[in-house]
Structure formats: structure tokens, C-alpha cells
Structure prediction request, 362 residues.
Amino acid sequence: MDHRARAWLRQKHCAARQQTEDKASEDAKGEKSRNRVIENELRDPSNFLEFLVPRPLRLVLTGSGAASCLIATVITGTQLLADLRYGGSGDAIPTVAINAAGGLLFAALFTADQRAADTRISRRDKVRKAQIGTGDREVYVNKDGERMSRLREVDSDWIIRRLERWGKRDRMPFIGPEKGALLQRIIRERQPRQVVEVGSMAGYSALTMAQALGPDGQVISLESDWKWALAAKRFVWQATQGDKSSKPADQQCGRVDVWVGNAIDKIPQQFVSRPPIDLLFLDGTPNETLAYLKAAEPFLAKGATVVADNAAIFAEGGMKPYLEYVRSDDRYTSKLMKCKLEWNDEVEDGLEVSQYMPPGAL
Ligand SMILES: C[S@@+](CC[C@H](N)C(=O)[O-])C[C@H]1O[C@@H](n2cnc3c(N)ncnc32)[C@H](O)[C@@H]1O
Prediction:
């Protein structure tokens, strides 16, 4: 075979392979769009009848019902007109009316079904867009170059974002992102092993602190209200359900322990035989803050950091005795880290950050 014949054969072979590949990719696309229709169908049904009769079949039934009634209306109507023109009695009037009513009924069913599907699809689109906006859904391009979206895995970031949305919407007293970032900075700088929090509520601050822990850090969060304690335990558990191998932050959230009880009693009972507290975060009831500190003081490590929330907004109220104590006692070096109140950029607040250094400790 000469080289021209071989080149011709090669071209032909390539063209044939290209055609096969094109066909395969068209088949795959067709298959995918069919799968999507089926998926929509499986997600759409809202009652038993809709499960039994899929939408395409319903549309065929109602559409063909409407069309046949319309044709029957035209035929019986024409016969009726001819009958009336030749002095007939108009006996066919009920038949025409029944046909027309059937046509209207089927057409209404057809339109309602179609509209309901459009509404469901646009509602799903809205939900998807909202999820993309909150960061719970990510957009990606698949191997066929199509823009797709998928829900992000539930992990600690996901739970923290969810709690932030809740906090913002209902003005919940979670510390919020700005104070959260300050706390994380303190934890990263000081690398505490034993972190103790008073006031878990839903676990927002405990999770935020846990994300910044070092390899041997642990958070014990105390909550006096058992309903909040349960909520915090649930969110902590959810936060650890992501792909742990690739996200150390999620693993660290697994080192949050929520304890139920009044911190003022629980700390002295439980910390006698535990490692000393390296970081104490006080965020319970403002006018009890000094009592929390006094309960925890015997268990503070030398050089421990004590952080108290709402040190500016309640400076002249519930936090006053606490602030006077840490600012006047020689064992503490204390300063206010100014920031905004959670969920409200117009209100000033702050964290009181105090270093505990009892005499002789160096
Ligand atoms: C401001 S919220 C805590 C918010 C949480 N630290 C956050 O940022 O997500 C105060 C919580 O402290 C709890 N609490 C109040 N007094 C307490 C006490 N004596 N011991 C333990 N928890 C207490 C309350 O039930 C409430 O859930």
C-alpha cells in the first residue's frame, strides 16, 4: 500500500472514530438530560396520585383530554348549528356543553400542572441561589464544561456559618465573627491546652475557639441550661461530621466537651484533679462574671489568659465589679480589646483580656 493510500485510510479511521466519539458524547448528554428529567420527576411529586402518575403522563392525559374534548365540541357544535338552522329542537345542546366543559377542565388541569412544575423549579432555583450566597453551595464546572452546583459538605465552617445566620437574624447573643476572630487570634498566639468557657449557648464560641486550637488543645464549655447544652452538643457533633482527614479544624471541634451545670459550682467540683486552665472565656450572665472568675481562679495556670465578653457595653452595669477586680488586682494585667457588639456595627463593645500572674510565678 503506498503512503497516500495509508494516509487516506488513517484519515477515514480518524473521522470514523471522531463520529463515534461525537455520538457517544451526544448519547451521554441525552442520557444526562433524561436523567435530570427523571430526577426532577422523582423530586416533584407532592401527593400519592402524583407519585403514581408521573408528570409527562399526566400532561399527555390532560392535554389529549383537552384536545379530544375540543374536537368533540367543534363537531357536536357544528352539528348543533346545522340542526338549529333546519329548525331542529337543539337536543344536542347538553352534549356540546359537556364537551366544552370537559375541554375547559382538562385544559385547566394541564395548565395548573405545568404552572406548579414551573413554580417548584423556580423555588428550587431561588433556594440554590440563596445557598450559593450563604456559601453553603459551591459552583463548579463539570468535565463536560457545564456550570453545576452542589451543596458543600457539612463541616465546622458550615455549622459556624449557619449559627451566624441564626445569630444575625434573631440577634442571638453569640459572640459573632469579629469577637470570634479576636478570640481565635488570642488562642493561636498563646496555644492554650485547656480552654474553659462559661456559657456555651448553641456552641458558637466553643466551635470558633476550637478551630484555632493547637494539636493538644481542648475546650470545656459549661452551660447551665440543659436545653442549650443539648443544642451545643448537637452542633458540635455536626461540626465534626465533615471529611476529617483533610480538615484539622473539624478534628479540633471534636475536642469540645459541653458540660451541663452552673459554672460557679461545677468548676470547683470538677477541676481539682484536672490540668490547669490556660484560657478562661467568660460569657455567661454579666453580673456573675466575677463569681465565675473566683470559682476558676484556684485552677488557673500561671500566665493563664482570662477573656470576658461585653466588657464595654456592660462596663457600668453587670460587668463593673469584674472589671474593677481584674484592673486593680496585682495578679492580673488587664486591657480592653475594643470591638463592635455582635450583629450591630453601630454599638461599641469589647473583650477584657487579662493575664493571670500570681506572685512568685515566672
Ligand atoms: C451570652 S450566652 C453565651 C453565648 C456563647 N458564648 C456564644 O458566643 O456562642 C450566655 C449563656 O450562658 C449561660 N449561663 C448563664 N449563667 C450560667 C452559669 N452560671 N453557668 C453556666 N452557664 C451559664 C446561659 O444559659 C446562656 O446560654
